[in-house]
Write a structure and sequence with these properties.
CATH class: Alpha Beta
Shape: globular
Structural class: alpha/beta
Distance between the termini: 53 Å
Strand order of the largest sheet: 2-3-1-4-5
Order of helices and strands: EHEHHHEHEHHEHHHHH
Largest sheet: 5 strands, parallel
Length: 274
């Protein structure tokens, strides 16, 4: 199978940043292929994926957490170019080529939150990759992560992306933990982006997507070297609704103060008023 992979697109973000909605919209582009519900079990095997595809449901995009977790390590979720093994590079490229061939697509799109801490590693695999970094107000992200923690193993149990040094602040309040998680993950992604240049890294605010979805989707597609069919774009934006007010209703004053205490500088830098 030829391994001709052209400018794969990686949507990176913290969990609970609205990336699932944004990913599902991007995945509707007719030139983009992705890890699918039907192929995620054996994503690098063309033969097995073809054999099992009729029995595994619809071809809809998924995060492919099983695919990306195979590269996880015990300490944290960050991976740099120096961590890349030749066997892992070959496997990931084979996986992407398999997905494109199965779907008959020209370009690949992936979304997995912990990959926001692996930009250098992914860049070493795909030197022409495009990275779209979706950023959302840290208080909205923090509220959603706190809700998720409470409904999983409890507020005191870590959930989601683990930036380097995360164990050093697990004794802080849950609100400060999620504020630091948000800040450190974004800073890590932005540091890695400095080596990429403006032609390979695009930062998008989720709030802008909610306010002007067609404009943001057009800008994102243009950055990736793609164009939307006008009728499809009109269909995609019809149901976009903003939920950016919910954190104000769902976060206690002490939690807002805790997040702003540790992440206030970055919130201001990104244009989120305190």
């Amino acid at each position: 199978m030829p391994d001709a992979i052209d400018r794969p697109v990686f949507l990176v973000s913290l969990p609970r940043s609205g990336s699932w909605v944004f990913y599902r919209k991007l995945a509707r582009h007719p030139e983009l292929g992705w890890i699918s519900k039907a192929t995620r079990k054996f994503p690098a095997s063309l033969l097995l994926s073809r054999a099992l595809r009729p029995f595994r449901g619809s071809d809809v995009p998924v995060e492919g957490s099983r695919v990306w977790r195979r590269f996880s390590r015990a300490g944290d979720d960050a991976l740099e170019a120096a961590d890349l093994r030749d066997a892992d590079r070959a496997w990931v490229r084979r996986m992407v080529a398999t997905q494109l061939r199965l779907q008959g697509k020209r370009r690949f799109l992936a979304k997995y939150p912990r990959n926001a801490l692996r930009v250098g590693w992914l860049d070493a695999i795909f030197p022409d990759a495009r990275f779209v970094h979706l950023v959302r107000d840290g208080r909205a992200v923090g509220r959603s992560i706190l809700d998720r923690r409470e409904h999983h193993d409890g507020l005191d149990v870590w959930w989601g992306s683990r930036p380097p040094g995360w164990r050093e602040f697990v004794t802080r309040s849950p609100a400060e933990q999620v504020g630091l998680q948000w800040r450190l993950c974004i800073e890590h992604t932005r540091r890695a982006a400095r080596a990429l240049g403006a032609d390979r890294y695009l930062e998008v605010r989720y709030e802008d997507f909610c306010d002007a979805p067609a404009e943001v989707l057009e800008r994102t597609a243009a950055f990736c070297g793609l164009r939307w069919p006008p009728a499809l774009l009109e269909e995609l934006v019809a149901d976009v609704r903003s939920q950016n007010f919910k954190w104000r209703e769902g976060l206690a004053a002490d939690d807002i103060e805790g997040i702003e205490k540790v992440a206030g500088d970055l919130l201001r830098e990104l244009g989120y008023p305190l």
